[in-house]
Amino acid sequence: MVSRQLPGHGESGDRPTLAPPHRVAVLITDGFIPFELGIPHRIFGIARTPDGHEPLYDVVTCTTREPRAVRSDSDVTVLVDHGPEALESADTVVVPAVREHGTAFTSGVTAPDMAEALGRIRPGARIVSICTGALQLAGVGLLDGRPATTHWHYTDLMRQLHPEIQVNPDVLYVDDGDVLTSAGVAAGIDLCLHLLRRDHGTAIAHDVARRTVVPPHRDGGQAQYVDRPVPDADGPGTAPARAWAMERLHEPITLAEMAGHAAMSVRTFTRRFREETGESPGQWLVRRRVDLARRLLEDTDLAVERIAARCGFGTAQSLRAHMQTTLGVSPTQYRRTFRPAA
C-alpha cells in the first residue's frame, strides 16, 4: 500500500484527506544499545509519501515505567518523554536489543516492568524485535510455537531457555505475520526495510535505503555472516583432523582421510565429529570452504573461477551452488555487498 488517501476528497480542489501516520513505539529499558534504538527512528522516521510531503510513520520512544532518563549500555543516557501507555495506541511496537543482563538471559523470564509494558500492547498491533530484543518477547510467551531468530551468539541460549520456539540461527530476520524478529545489529535495518516494502512497496523502501546509504534489500533467508574459529591442532577428539583439513581446503579431502588423521574408524570419527561440531564432516568441510571463499571475495580481485579452485569446489558453478545454499547469495552478490566498487 503506497497511498494513505482516505475515501472522499472534501471540497473540489482540496487536497485529499490522509490517514494518520502509522504509529511506531520503540520500547527501551536500562541497558539498551543506542545503535539499535536508532534503527527504527532512522528507517521509519524518514519515510514519506511518494510526493515527499507527508510522513508515513509517527515514531516515538517509550520506556517501561514513567517518562524518565534511561541509561544505555554506554555513556549515553536518553530522556524518554513517553511511558508504557504509548504502547496502547501503537500500530507497531519495536523492542531493540539490551545488553546481556537480567532474568531474560538467565532464567528466560522477562523482568516484571518489561513484561507489564508488553502486556499493554493492543490486540492487532505488530510486534518487532531487533537482536536480543527477541529474548524479551520470548520471556512473556509472545514467540511460543513461532519461528524466530536473534543474534547468532544467543540462538543456542534461546533454544535452551525456550524449547517451544522454533529458533532459526541462520537467517537475518523472520517474518511471522504479526510478530517479526531479526538477527543482530544491522539485521534490524534489513527487517525495518522489509516492513517498509511490506507496507508501502519497493519504491519507498529503496528511497529510504538510498538516503540511509545501505543496501536496499538483503533477503530475510540470507544467512548471518558468522566467522567460525579455527580448531586447535593440538586439541582433543577430532580437532587435529579439522586443523589438518583447514590447511588443505584446496585439495580433495575424503572422510576416510580425516578419520585416519584422527586415528579413528570412520564410524567413530563421524559420531565424535557431530558431537563436537553439531555438523557432519561433509557439512563442516563445505562451510569451511565457503568461509574461505568469503574471505577471498572480500579481500581479493580474483575471478570466481579461481576462487572456486582455491577453495576446493573445482568449478564456479559448484561454488555458486554451495554459497547459495549456505549463505543465500551468489559469489557476485556477496562481493558486491562486502567489496563495493571503488
UniProtKB/TrEMBL annotation:
Entry keyword annotation includes Protease: no
InterPro entries in the record: Class_I_gatase-like, DJ-1/PfpI, Homeodomain-like_sf, HTH_AraC, INH-QAR
Organism domain of life: Bacteria
GO molecular function: DNA-binding transcription factor activity; sequence-specific DNA binding
Alphabetically ordered keywords of this record: Transcription, Transcription regulation
Coiled coil: none
Region of interest (Disordered), ranges: 214-237
Domain HTH araC/xylS-type: residue ranges: 239-337
Protein known as: Transcriptional regulator GlxA family with amidase domain
Taxonomic source organism: Myceligenerans xiligouense
